[in-house]
Amino acid sequence: MTSSSEVISPGSLAAVTAEPGVAPPAASSPARTASPDPGPGRPGWVQSANGALKDNWVLLSLLCLAIFLAIWQFYTAATKALPGPWEVAQKSWFFLSDPFYDNGPNDQGIGILIGYSLMRLSLGFICGSTVAIILGVVLGLNRTLYKALNPYIQVLRAISPIAWMPLLLYSVQDSGWTALLVVFMASVWPTLANTAFGVNNIKKEYLNVAAILQMPMLAKVFRVILPGAGPAIVAGLRISMGSAWVAIVPAEALLGSLGLGYFVWNEWNNLDIGNVIFAILVIGMVGVVLDLLFNRLAKVLAYTD
Q: Which residues pair with 108 in a beta bridge?
């Protein structure tokens, strides 16, 4: 018999309560976490690779590029229909190693041709965006006028800029001006629609404060309306830039104006598909750079109430 004051340890208690012939349970030890089951048909290295790709988007992007190049090379070797990646890489190095040479009107470096396209794009885009923002502010401040003209804006915005080219060429009788006007038409409608929408949906508190302060109309536009509608306007400008860049290439190709579109069409006439692929890649990269610039501008102008 143990005295009432004697303390029985957990181990002795287990020994006392254990049945005869049954070994007492072993002392408790830290729990061990079982390794995760990779699942049927999924080895451990596959699961590790999935985890690495999930946490590293750069590795996943490079893997997608490697798969694309492998498919391209396999298709080229099987069909001989297109030049392979290595041939396109060699042509790319040829053009990029000296991008600003000038051997005459029909033989200029890719850097000069990009400059022609960007110059034409900038002029048409600036003119179109200026007109669109002015008209958008006017429509956005007049709700009745906005509702009346919005259906027509939506219809015009859905028309491809290239569809305007025959009419514009017939009207102005000049390929250079026609290319500028194509960019202008591509730039107007998305920015106009977004500006009118953004101005029309500015918080009334902002306009009430401007009215209380008796701000002149011009000051109210630049200090209240445009900043308030800034994110919507930049979104419209971004869409317009993408539309204008898509439109300028076929416009240059069809009108024979110097630029990337002219380069694509000229190389196609020469049946040099490798140079055509190189030009396509350059057009895509320039478009990505332009979109990144507007993305940075959108982040600068973004705000939270």
A: 102
Residue type for 100, please?
Answer: F
DSSP 3-state assignment of 136?
Answer: helix
Question: Can you tell me which residue has the tokens 């699961």?
Answer: 47
- Residues contacting 180, CB < 8 A, separation 6+: 120, 123, 124, 127
Burial, 155: exposed, middle or buried (Cβ in 10 Å; 0-12, 13-18, 19+)? Answer: exposed
CA dist., res. 189 & res. 169, Å (int): 20
Q: Read off the pLDDT of residues 227-244 as tens digits, 9 standing for 90 and up.
A: 888 888 998 999 999 999
Question: Which pair of tokens denotes residue 136?
Answer: 């958008």
Q: Is the pLDDT of residue 14 over 80?
A: no
Average pLDDT over residues 88-111: 86
**pLDDT per residue over 50-76, tens digit each?**
665 566 888 888 899 999 999 999 988
CA angle 302, 286, 187 (to 5 degrees): 60
Look at the chain and report how many structural domains it folds into: 1
Phi, psi of 253 (to 5 degrees): -65, -45
- The neighbouring-strand residues paired with 102 are 108
Question: Could you tell me the two tokens for 229?
Answer: 């509608």
What range defines the domain where residue 217 resides?
A: 110-301
Q: What is the CATH number of the domain that holds 164?
A: 1.10.3720.10
Q: Does some domain include residue 227?
A: yes
